[in-house]
UniProtKB/TrEMBL annotation:
This is Type III restriction system methylase. Keywords: Methyltransferase, Transferase. It comes from Desulfosudis oleivorans (strain DSM 6200 / JCM 39069 / Hxd3). InterPro entries: SAM-dependent_MTases_sf (IPR029063). SUPFAM superfamilies: S-adenosyl-L-methionine-dependent methyltransferases (SSF53335). GO terms for biological process: methylation. It comes from the Bacteria.
């Protein structure tokens, strides 16, 4: 039996009742095509331990595996892209840590199963680094981080450039939400991104070097 409540105190303080797997899948099936599009961006503003984000990542990775498992570099590139398109916020620190760990575990399980002793720690570091940035300990109501000093939450748009390069641009969560684009984060057509100037841009970098070069 999956547990949807950790404690009565957490339910009272944070409304924490986690969504069951059957409901998660039924809801995601309403946007099935998007959950199976590797680069489709999802934000869960009260992500808990990641019940929705975990299934989204599993669905995307199933597509990556089906299409790219013959080439390790292609698999790594698209798996990193799948991870980089998933965003979450939660007000409870342990949930955020759990969620990052869980998403990493989902990636690593597939990666190890496919490539065993040939797996590359730089790829793992890239996945961990992106999850550290994309899954935020913050308050989705005032759009600020929870760790001190409390600063506005930023989200990073990760876009592939010339195959193996990744470009990162940071945006303020509050801008994205105020423009009512929370369901359409950084639309692929570029129209959302065009409306919002990034607050920071980084030079493109090889995806396997991302954890070492960008701080
Ligand atoms: C009903 S649970 C849902 C968790 C997850 N989305 C799921 O479906 O399993 C609500 C979550 O929202 C978080 N939460 C409550 N207030 C929040 C806020 N202001 N900002 C971000 N997260 C918040 C809680 O910590 C809890 O994990």
């Amino acid at each position: 039996m999956e547990s949807q409540v950790i404690s009565k105190k957490r339910v009272a303080n944070h409304g924490e009742v986690l969504t069951g797997n059957r409901e998660v899948n039924a809801m995601l099936d309403l946007v099935k095509q998007e959950t199976e599009r590797i680069e489709s961006r999802f934000l869960e503003p009260a992500c808990g331990t990641g019940n929705f984000l975990a299934v989204i990542l599993e669905r995307k990775l199933a597509v990556v595996e089906k299409r790219y498992s013959k080439s390790q570099l292609d698999f790594e590139r698209y798996a990193v892209l799948a991870v980089s398109s998933i965003y979450g916020v939660d007000i409870q620190k342990d949930n955020v840590e759990h969620c990052r760990q869980r998403l990493f575990g989902i990636f690593d399980l597939v990666y190890l199963r496919l490539f065993k002793h040939k797996t590359n720690d730089d790829c793992r570091a890239a996945v961990r680094f992106i999850l550290e940035i994309n899954i935020v300990w913050g308050d989705a109501l005032d759009f600020k981080t929870k760790d001190e000093p409390r600063v506005p939450i930023r989200f990073s748009e990760w876009s592939p450039v010339n195959g193996s390069m990744l470009k990162r641009r940071d945006f303020m969560l509050s801008y994205l939400v105020e423009k009512q684009h929370q369901m359409l984060l950084f639309s692929d057509e570029g129209n959302v991104a065009d409306l919002n100037e990034p607050i920071r841009e980084y030079p493109p970098i090889h995806f396997l070097e991302i954890a070492h070069a960008q701080q």
